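Q: Okay, next protein. This is F-box domain-containing protein from Handroanthus impetiginosus. I've checked the sequence twice, so it should be correct. Can you predict the 3D structure?
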Amino acid sequence: MTNYNTRVSNIPEDVILDILLRLPTKMLTRFKSVCKNWKALIESTYFIKQHFNHKNNEARLLIYHYKSDIQTCVFTLYLNTTFSRYMEPNHLQFRNIVSVIGPINSIFCVIDENLIGEGGGITLWNPSLREFRPIPAANLSFSLNFFTFPNVFGFGQNPLNEDYKVVWIRKFRDPRMIHPRMVTLVSLYSLNDDSWRHFKDTDFGIVIRNLSESKCNTYVNGFYYWLADDVNGNYYILGFDMGNERFVELEVPKCVTSLYVNLCLFHDDVAILSLDVQEVGKSIDLWVRKEEGHWVKQLGVGPFSFWDFSWPFGLWENGSFVMETSFSDLILLNPYTRQVWNLNARSEYGYTRIYSYKESLVSIKRRN
């Protein structure tokens, strides 16, 4: 061991840093036991950020989808740019069907709907480090005894102090009343405080109506976004500022009237992917929100008479569209070349999501 440490110490520090930054997280976890200096380096904030953004740590397409032969949802990770090689890593799988939001720095928020009613069921997860951190139950200091409607979640980070936060929105109606009264409860979890706080939507000066979670990640620059609609069926975007802890409402392009829309991100801008049904076929439009609420039609493709698309899922890193067909198959469409890849994945039960996945050394272990 002495000879080995001597040889390591003779290697210039910048060379050691360059080598370590190219290694996968599993190997780096083992290398922390080589010496104290390596352990301190690999656990440093500087190294973690450099490793996450290193060119060797490429983003890969990750899809959470239904697999009929085992009748459950699985994660499929695609290993090349032609999407012909893929795998279902064991460390990415769950026994139960769950909802998964994120990632933020490759940290996911996992929700088990079967356990939500029991006071738990929400967990933070870093699959690269095989780390789980259950979030404490969101116990209320007051009793509601109301019938609850579907849960809506958001997951993001305060960019000022890197605090991870979970937003949980629930609507309640008291069935005992002749004219049932709707109550919207907003619960906010902070990882730094490891606790929940509870508010009504009116505490923020807004009334939250119908929300839908996107099929892909919609957190960007400190905000998490949902697609929403009002009592007249008009779309708008509801955003939550993770730093200032306030909601914002954004208008959408007035020409977006299709029922088949999904909120997504185009680089660092909020975008809407819209599927429009026409007599000559189906067309796909990508609208991008620029500064000061100005929307731009970034791209329009179609009409297609030979592809029976049923839903737009989102965008991949190279600008390709992830689409669902009427047979629930997921495909990737390059809007410029119109090349299509079958992802050999099926969408069912409303749990299907697409992610841009990179390895991360960010630890979510309980802090002192």
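A: Here is a summary of the prediction. Residues 1-57 form one domain. Residues 13-21 form the longest helix (9 residues).
Q: Noted. On to the next one.
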